[in-house]
Prior knowledge:
Elements lengths: L6 H19 L6 H12 L4 E4 L6 H12 L3 E5 L6 H5 E6 L4 E6 L6 E5 L6 H13 L1 E4 L2 E4 L5 E6 L12 H4 L4 E3 L6 H11 L14 H11 L6 H16 L3 E3 L3 H17 L7 H12 L4 E2 L1 H5 L4 H11 L11
Parallel strand pairs: 1-8, 1-9, 2-5, 5-8
Antiparallel strand pairs: 3-4, 6-7, 10-11
Amino acid sequence: MFKNHHAEEIQLKEKNVEKMIGNVEKVVVGKRREIELSTIALLSGGHVLLEDVPGVGKTMLVRAMAKSLGANFKRIQFTPDLLPSDVTGVSVFNQKTMEFQFRPGPIMANIVLADEINRTSPKTQAALLEALEEGSVTTDGETRELQEPFFVMATQNPIEYGGTYPLPEAQLDRFLFKFKIGYPTKAEELDVLNRVEKQHPIDQLEPVLSLDDLIQMQKNVLDVYVDNTVKQYIIDLVNTTRIHYAVYLGASPRASIALMKASQAYAYIQGREYVVPDDVKYLAPYVLRHRILLNSDSKLSNVTNEQVIKEIIDQIRIPVGKEAAK
Length: 326
């Protein structure tokens, strides 16, 4: 039995989500899918990794989301000389009080843009690990909780670019989604030019939701029903990445959890109080593509992670049952 008393509430919150997506679209033109995926990550408590060339709107996307919520926003520009303390914060001696005082780093915000994360050293990249997974940072032996809600959108240049440090598998696994924004069409680019001709639309953007609204929606997402047949479908997809002939290292159980939670959020923004297998199928490429490592033969054959995930999705039977068929 579904929790029918949540139906009206979910439909009401769906309208609120639509308001936020529409608000972001005033700034980011023609990227409805990417805005929607970012919103799914936000609602499910996950984080996003964008891999794309400079100038396609990555920064505007996260800034517009922050302004739509009236959230505390910080940007971290990752460079080769950035230190972990530049991210988490540092204790400074106050000569007046004769005590050390903690000065929080930019990670202590609601929405954080970690720009060009693969331009910094692995040591500084690791400073994000605890924040992404635990929602806290440890400095000077003391653990400090981060603000709620907490959302990180990290960007990285394509690996082929010079001066980059590939993210280790443990850090990639902390991101719910990995996707690209891509170049706009000619018509979309003309629309961009018209919008910024006199004033950038980001400067006029007003909040349409509060942080309290977001926190409540995150709680409501947890009430979205996931039938055991859908959970088994998630497990089958993830498990197949571990035994696929082209894969050296498959997705971990964290991927199963991420796919389920993302599917709950996707169903929620669709105005449903239950997850269907098509939700899982749609989100699986964004959740799984960065969580597998291909073997050397596959790399030599120019097989891509995307091709492997698509093959796995195509070969796993979609469950059919009372709840799954809904």
